[in-house]
Structures are given as structure tokens and as C-alpha cells.
Amino acid sequence: MLDRNESGLRFVKMHGAGNDFVVIDSRGKGGPMMTAALAQAIGDRHRGVGYDQLAELHGGGTPGLKLDFWNSDGSRAGACGNATRCVADLVMVETGADAVVLKTARGALQAVRDDQGRVSVNMGQPLLDWQQVPLSGDVDLTALPLDGAPLAVGMGNPHCVFPVADAEAVDLLTLGPRYENDPLFPEKTNVEFISLIAPDHLRMRVWERGTGVTLACGSGACAAAVAAHRRGLTGRRVVIDVDGGQLVADWREDGVWLTGPVAYVFEGRLTPAMMALA
Ligand SMILES: N[C@@H](CCC[C@H](N)C(=O)O)C(=O)O
């Protein structure tokens, strides 16, 4: 066990509506250090720390703060709305600012804190062309023998959203991995099942690519709002009930804004033995 004088890689455990993250701070250390093997080891809920996504913060100064995302199976993710909100809060607490810009593979994302302590991030405009989602071809998903006539939405990562009568009744453990790995999605996909509560209110259950069932998914909430609006089910702003709480997605002229809670769980240090797995 590490004592207080031993060095080790510091991390913070956070969550946003139950979507949980390990945040590694690599600022001022000459660039990111994460590898697929180490990300997978830290993500192991029995032998590591456990998380849905790992977020590594690096860069700073004039080029700006950068954020990379890893799934618990060691794969990379181009976007993670809830981790972006959590890390934005961490930086805002540190600097005393009420807004921050974080550079991600999705682009430079602007985040702000509201007077209830919730953090919002502009996740950008949805990507709706098949090449951008991406899909394996110019196919109409509604014509496919996939239950529920889904919509494909890119938010910097792929999402397949199924509007269904009752999201509670969906067998997520069977259907999630089936569609995640469908050849229609060359980079695999996140899978969301949504049902309508009211024209401004959805229920969503999610299977995340590279992770499995999670209690919430921010980019998934954005994709769900876009899909529901395109289907004529909702307006542009929706409250979304997820297993871990509530998120709000608002498709505005400048992009889809995702709002929700952030929480700090604990801080720790990874042991040298764990680091040796990098
Ligand atoms: N939980 C996330 C999405 C994480 C990435 C996803 N599993 C992927 O591989 O694209 C969110 O809050 O957006």
C-alpha cells in the first residue's frame, strides 16, 4: 500500500448522473501518458479502480486544455459529454471561473456552470450524414429489420437511437451488444432506447460502446434529443430520465447543449504496480 510520501499517479473519481469517471491530470507533464493496457487495468472494477470512462486532461497555456477519453475496455472514445462536464467543473473550481473551453477530438467544447451548480457543455451540432456517424453505407435505418426503426446520430461518437413504446421493457443486455457490433456501424456504436413521457420529456436506457450498460450517457442524451425531435416526438429541449438521474439536452442554433449534475467521489493515487501495466 502507498503511504503519503510515496509517489503515484494522482486521480479523481467523479460522476455525472451515475456515469462514472476516473480523471487523470497530465497537465505540465509533457503530454498524455495513457495507454490502452493501463486504461483497461484501471477500468477493472475488481482489480483496478473501475469507471465507465477515463478522462485524461493535458495541455494548457496558449494551446489550451485538452481532454482524451477511454472506455473501460481500453478503446478510445471521440466524445464523452458527462466526463466533459465533470472535468470542466474541476477546472472551474480550480480557476474560480464560470466557464471553460476544453479541446477534445469532437472539437473545442465550451462549458459553463449555472446557479444550481449544474454544468452545461455545448456538444456541437449532430452529424447526420452516414459518412460522419459513421455508417457502413448510405442506408436508411428505418427500412432495416432492426427492432424499433432506429436513427443514427453522430455526436463525435456514433449513436443508434431506438424510439420504443416502453424503454423499461427492452432487454438491454441482449440488444445492446447486438447493435453495438452490427456491421452497419464500422466503428461500432452506442445504443439508446428512448420512450416518450411528454413532448419535453424522455426516458432513456443506454448500452455504451466499449463499456456496456451505464447509468447515463451525455452524448447519448444529445443524440436521443436530436432523434426524438427529428421523429416529431419532442421539441428541441428535453429532460431525459436516465437510470442515474436526469439530464437536459437542448438542440440550439449553436449546437446541442447538455446539462446535468456533477459529483466528486474520492481522490487517490495509482500504485507503481498499476503504473507498470502501462
Ligand atoms: N458516457 C459518455 C460516452 C462515452 C463514450 C462512448 N462509450 C463511446 O465509445 O463513444 C457520454 O457521457 O457521452
From TrEMBL:
Family under the similarity heading: Belongs to the diaminopimelate epimerase family.
Subunit and partners: Homodimer.
Transmembrane segments: none
Pfam families hit by this protein: DAP_epimerase (PF01678)
InterPro entries per UniProt: DAP_epimerase_AS (IPR018510), DAP_epimerase_DapF (IPR001653)
Molecular function in Gene Ontology: diaminopimelate epimerase activity
GO cellular component, one term: cytosol
Pathway membership: Amino-acid biosynthesis; L-lysine biosynthesis via DAP pathway; DL-2,6-diaminopimelate from LL-2,6-diaminopimelate: step 1/1
Functional note: Catalyzes the stereoinversion of LL-2,6-diaminopimelate (L,L-DAP) to meso-diaminopimelate (meso-DAP), a precursor of L-lysine and an essential component of the bacterial peptidoglycan.
Residues the record lists as binding substrate: 19, 53, 71, 81-82, 157, 190, 208-209, 218-219
Protein name: Diaminopimelate epimerase
Catalytic activity: (2S,6S)-2,6-diaminopimelate = meso-2,6-diaminopimelate
Active site, UniProt feature: 80, 217
Main location class: cytoplasm
Organism of this sequence: Neogemmobacter tilapiae
GO biological process, any: lysine biosynthetic process via diaminopimelate
Enzyme Commission number: 5.1.1.7
Subcellular location per the Swiss-Prot or TrEMBL entry: Cytoplasm
Site (Could be important to modulate the pK values of the two catalytic cysteine residues): 159, 208
Record carries keyword ATP-binding: no
SUPFAM superfamilies: Diaminopimelate epimerase-like
Key words, A-Z: Amino-acid biosynthesis, Cytoplasm, Isomerase, Lysine biosynthesis
